[in-house]
Amino acid sequence: MRSRILITGLLLVAPLARGQSYSAKVGVIAPLTGAEQAFGAQHERGYAMALEDINAKGGVLGKPLEIIKYDDQSKADVAVQGASKLVDQDKVPVVIGAYSSQSTLALVPAMNKRQVPLVIPTATADNVMASKSPWVFRVCGGADDYARATVDFLKTIGLPKSLALIYENTNFGQANAESMRVQAKAAKMAIVADEAYAQAAPSYTAMLQKVKEKNPEAIYFASYLLDATQLMKQSRQVGLNPKIYTSAGTGFAIPAFISPEKGAGKDAEYTFSTQQWMPESKWPGSREFSDRVKARFGEYPSYHAVQAYVSLLIVADAVNRAGKWEPKAIREAIAKVEIPSIFGPIKFVNQQNQHPILITQVQNGAFAIVAPADQATAKPILPTPPWSARP
Amino acid sequence: MTRSRWLPAVLFFAFLLSLPLWMRDAYLQQIAFRVVIFAILGLAWNLVGGYAGQLSLGHVAYFGVGAYSVALFNERLGWNPWLGTLAGIGLACVAALIIGSLTFRLRGPYFALSTIAAAEIIRLLALNLSFTHGAIGMIAPGLFDEPNSDRKTYLASIPLLALAFLLTAWTHDSRFGYSLRAIRENEDTAMAVGIDPAREKLKALLLSAVLVAAAGSLYASVFQFIGPDSVLAIDMSVQMALIAMLGGAGTVWGPIIGSVVLTVAAEGLKAYLERAHLLVYGLLLVMVVLFLPGGLVSIFKQRWFRRLRPRAGTT
Amino acid sequence: MATLQAILNGLLVGGIYALIAMGMALVFGVMRLVNFAHASFLMVGMYVAFFGYTLLKINPYWGFVLVGGALALFGLGVYWTLIRRVMGQSDFLQILLTEGISLCLVGAAQLLFTGDYRSINLPLANRTANLGPLNFNVAYAVSFAIAIFGATSMFLYMRYTEMGRAIRAVAQNPGVAPLMGIRVQWVNGISFAFGVACAGAAGALLLPIFYVNPTIGGPYNLKSFVIVVLGGMGSLEGAALGGLILGVTEGLTAYYWEDSYTQVVDFVLFLAVLLLRPQGLFGRKAP
């Protein structure tokens, strides 16, 4: 008798208890407005293409896939609010995002607390993975990969003896600078200048002047688009002439950087950058994807678009295999994902996808792949001519 | 406390405590939590801004000190967030003593500007020192080690609100409050009556800083990610002032009402006007200053008063 | 040598700071009002200049006059509808009102233009020139020249015109001025409009070398406070000089220490002045 009452009681209370019924949608957090809007736009295109392709093949679990987007306004604390809105209010069982290392870092504890899987498409700072949480997966390569790839490339052209680090002072910049410090030390490159700067400052000329006086043979930048543009224009003004400009992708790696209206235009020429993907890369389907995006949006995609595209494909694949819209099941399915893609073969080892890094150089107003050897489409142009000798 | 204050307070806190029993939605619980936090902040600011009449726009400094203390003491010394909070309160008191003794010498807009400067210096230090991890920010430990401990955290915030409320009520009716109001009306005249403005203002600031720092520590353990832009931004100082002003500066219930109205309205508007919330804040502030400088409480006060306590000579 | 370069860069930027701060100094000198919305008007000026260039091809280097004019009218409107009502009330309410106006402006900009950064690409902005061994950006130099021109015009106006004298009279003694037949309300309005116009024009000059987004005003507000206090609240010459001093100090800090510390130095300077010499360089009375 008592057990019957108990069971009935439990049955009555159960619906009131913390029973979550998740929605059949994927949550997405990206900077649709704000300083990182250009990258948010790339993400959006990637997600749009992925939705098309996924739904053309029948959607997820037999229904068309839907995503719920949240604009983090390029701010870390807004990204955290996104977690609350998407998970607590909209009840999504999986989230992809954010864009920047800063916003993603803020997002991780919020997602961990809610025990909902987070797929990171683009954040390169390695501290976003520091929590080693089973709920967090990263698709892109990290800052260490960038630094190592750059140093490996520099070794093939004659390792410079001195390096200057110039980086923006949020998570992305600091993390990439730290990775490069480690790699430079191992390769015995002397770091002659180490300058952190704040984004949205009117002038970097004082800092660039300082770097110029140290006479570095090479510079490694970690910058977003606005700062990358200013830095190259002001390097010209100051007459900063290292033999080689390298960078940790991002601002230096997107098509907008080369455009004269939105970027540095001809001042972008000769700069090297790490890239996670290029239209010319040898992964099957890259070229076609790139052309499709150009036809639809008028511009070739940057690797950020591809990362977003692939992330959504990964999630769709995982949900299909998990068989239900439930966080734990989806998490376990993501861990087991093994699919070929235009971003290379996807496989997570310890929550991290193993992804090789490309090096490109801006040649004649376009990106050309110069490393690694099996992906190269052009030879590097070196040394960089001094500004006075450039148009 | 007078009876007219005691009864509504008990009802109000009983209501707050009961919330987790019938409010199941995690999202709504979060909103309730934010209402409580901002009420605490509003009440704290009210002591200095409302009662003493000192327009401090740098209160976020103490919030940041509280938040960063939890994170730093945990990272460097392994302290749990409860101890970190105590440390934060202590540090905030030190900061209040320093900032107060420097800024209270100034009057009017100079005072307001100096409080902004003080808070900005702290923010810039947090931003530039590697000790605080700069712009990257820090991860603070959660108050309770379990996932999904939102309900417990919410309940933990209620005693702090009660403390803030009691402090305010006591201030309102005590000699201390009288001194503060005298200083607010005319500092020189207050001196003439034997009040030491410097001491009283500093006392108010210390009480205020304790509450704000505790709220900051709580915030850090809940959101777990803190950075110079989230816990030391000038926006939050303005928000504290707005909450108190909107509800009614210099009153006991004002900041609480202000927090309820503002937080709920902000959430409600967010769904439709995500990008317009600054504009709404601005309009609210302008309208309060121009048309309702006594705050929302001044509306309630009249009807309430008339209904419950008919004055002698009126029917 | 490098020091001279840093000083030159600092001076050029300081010219623009001076123009911005002079607007704030004027408003404070005449109305005893600290306009917390000052830099938000700067931001509005930048947007006006931006759209003036992208839609109407108006080059900000002469268009700044139009921008200044547009903002003067806007400022007059703001004064008449809002500011006028708190004149004579407590500092508390005045500050909160201007802060509220600031939030409205920023909020409206966010709503209308989103948080994206916009910039224009003037060929002039990319040109560098040389002054002996020192180099400088031509756009900065042009802005500096215009700012100095603007500042000088303001001085001359204040000194030699009827209205200028009226403004100075109200600044000196708002109680007695009406006895001299001066319509104080009008003077206040004109001064406020003038102040806002300065901010707007400076914004137009800033646009080619920088970019605009709704929150771009923030740091300039704080810098303006520092400059106005440094120069002495209400003193135009003080604000001009203060702007140059701040520019140079920031440039030297960026060079010798680190770029990110320039803001800290701003505030330390600010507190030092407030505590050690609150009347600033040319100010008349201590607070």
Keywords:
heterotrimer, B: 315 residues, mainly alpha, ABC transporter involved in vitamin B12 uptake, BtuC, two-stranded antiparallel ribbon, 14 helices, 2 strands, globular, C: 287 residues, two-stranded antiparallel sheet, 3% strand
Number of helices of chain A: 12
Helix-strand category of chain C = mainly alpha
Which value, in Å, is the CA radius of gyration of chain C? 18 Å
Helix content of chain A: 40-55%
**Parts with pLDDT < 50 across at least 5 consecutive residues of chain A:** 1-18
Q: Averaging pLDDT over every residue of chain C, what do you get?
A: 87
The CATH architecture of the largest domain in chain A? 3-Layer(aba) Sandwich
Largest interface: B-C, 43 and 42 residues
- CATH topology descriptor of the largest domain in chain A: Rossmann fold
Strand content of chain C: under 5%
Strand order of the largest sheet of chain A: 2-1-3-4-5
Number of strands of chain A: 15
Mind telling me which CATH architecture of chain C this is?
Answer: Orthogonal Bundle
How many beta-strand runs of chain C?
Answer: 2
CATH third-level topology of chain C: ABC transporter involved in vitamin B12 uptake, BtuC
The coarse silhouette of chain A is: globular
Oligomer: heterotrimer
CATH class of the largest domain in chain A: Alpha Beta
